[in-house]
Known about the structure:
This protein is an alpha/beta fold. It has 7 helices and 15 strands. It starts with a strand and ends with a helix.
Amino acid sequence: MFQEILLPMISRREWLVSGAAVLASAGCKTPQPSGIRVRVWDERQPAQKKAYPNWLGNQIADHLRTVSGLSVESVCIDDPEQGLKDLDSVDVLVWWGHVRHAEIEPATAARIVERIRTGKLSLLALHSAHWSRPFVGAMNAVARDRALAALPENERSRAVVVESDLLPRPWMAPSYKERLSPEVQYRRPPQGPVEVRLLRANCCFPAYRGDGKPSEVRIRLPRHPIAQGVPEFFAIEQTEMYDEPFHVPAPDEVVLEEHWSSGEWFRSGSVWRLGHGRIFYFRPGHETYPVFFNPNALRIVANAARWLGQR
């Protein structure tokens, strides 16, 4: 007989908030010689031109170049090695992806996740990058580490991890009725090692709405470095709506939330630690809305880049 042990039950709310230029558009820009080294990676999908004449990634990079202590370059998926060469020269990778997630090889994403784990790189994932392979890989590495850490040391070293997915195909959104992911169960056979059954994080949510209605950002951790100089409440004038639950491991810190007048809300600024590295997810978007002309959104990105780049 197998013995099945589920992790302790907590309320839905507790689970959700616990923890918490022309040349530029043609290719990469040369980084400055010193400071926290930030690489802004962008798909540059054509729809961006509606709001960002010089691409969304370049808009963010141009702002970050005005911030003391940052050395910034802007790249895109069509650059050599998909803009991901020489990661030894990068401290913080800012990632905007949406429609070309599948073009990033799993091995490339695994290399990024390993650099995060060893403290050589931090990841700042923006909006639809919730389904990028580096972010999904990092979230499932967090889930895997936590599942193993919950075991006694004498069981942990011999445990067998068996992973499965919530839904039958990649990049499928869950419904409100789906069980939350990630989820872990432990099975102990009469003989042999503990089996850790891990339902991987789907890294999506049950609803979105692209009508451009405003959101209210509410800072939950005003003393966090990412929130420095940001008002406790401010509006994103045009944005896409995402609604909870977000199928990710419980964040270590939820710095900010977004709320909509129709009742939806989202953990829109969340931090996770993976080994010696950190991940920050900042939700506001879509690429056809001028979110990254909003001074408070830009300040959050700049604060996050500086904080993530600290060793």
